[in-house]
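Thread: "does anyone have the structure for this chain?"

Original post by V.I.:
We have the sequence but no experimental structure in hand. Need at least a predicted one for the grant figures.
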Amino acid sequence: MDSAHLDREPAATPVSDREPAAVFERVMAGLGPFEERPHVAVALSGGADSMAACLLSEQWTRARGGRVTALIVDHGLRAGSMAEVRTVAAWMQRRGIACDILRWTGAKPTAGVQAVARDARYRLLRAWCRRAGVLHLITGHQADDQAETYLLRLGRGSGRTGLAGMSAVREFPEVRLLRPLLSLGRRELAAWLTMQGVEWVDDPSNQETAFARVRLRRKLATEPAWRDGIFAAVRRAGAARMRAEAETHRLLAGTAFIRPLGFARLHRAAFNGGGDPDLRARALGRLCLALGGCDHAPGTAGLGRLVARMGQEGAFTGATLGGCRLVAEARGSVLICREARNLPPVQAARPGTIEAWDGRFRLDLPIDLA
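Reply from O.Q.:
Generated one for you, tokens below.
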């Protein structure tokens, strides 16, 4: 049961004298709007962070006439995991909290286990929310998770956007993923649970030093000054990302015209005069990501070279990048469309599911077509 963008402001430095319920209330007010009598799902691993998220969510929804369903995923990766799942489910039932157990079945990976398990977990959680008509899924990610993410991405050479870490809300086709605990640390949440007399379980994989995240977690726990410095760095990176996102959105809103069939036209002169090269590279990367059907934007080096070519009169007639074909048009625009080669296989569209097609479109067929 290991625990695993429209962006909002990421984590602030946790403050130990804040009461978690008050912090939760304040953060949730900024993540709305919510429906009347909200039904919220909470991803529950049984660890301290997700237990706190579940109980805080239950208090919050109950005050609004709503309810919580705890979703526990059994990955089936360890002997005895189902017994732990049942223990956690029993704790929830004693508190009057509805609980569903989701099982990851089928073959399990021998490498990259954490990443594959995380993807499987979110597939199960999102599918449950779609079936149940639940609009909001809450996870227990907190400030120490954010610090670990920052350090892992720093080690991989992530840029400014990546170093801002996890955002407080991410929108999927099925559900809004909310992370309302990003401004509270692991110790604060554990102390709050202890005061409430709440038990939790510790996943043995959190002690596996073969995982880089576990090694960083131990180092952060033993070096509080370094930990506080990382929190401050994440906060600065988050503020920088928000500014960059706002600038990128303004540039695209004024220069790019997206067509419903999955291509766009870029007003070249306005785009070339729309800001510094880094801003234009980010904007062009965002377009390529949306129109090329890829999982990630093109690399910064390739984007920088393309932006430079587009800015030189007569030097640009066309290019391919990030799964996209860019073609200079006589009327001063650049046509950006999906490149014909390396197309992914077409996925079957099944009633009652949301299927990706070509990396650009999602087909959402109602269940009554079956």
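V.I.: this helps a lot. DSSP finds twelve helices and 13 strands in the chain.
O.Q.: and Residues 1-17 have pLDDT under 50 and may be disordered.
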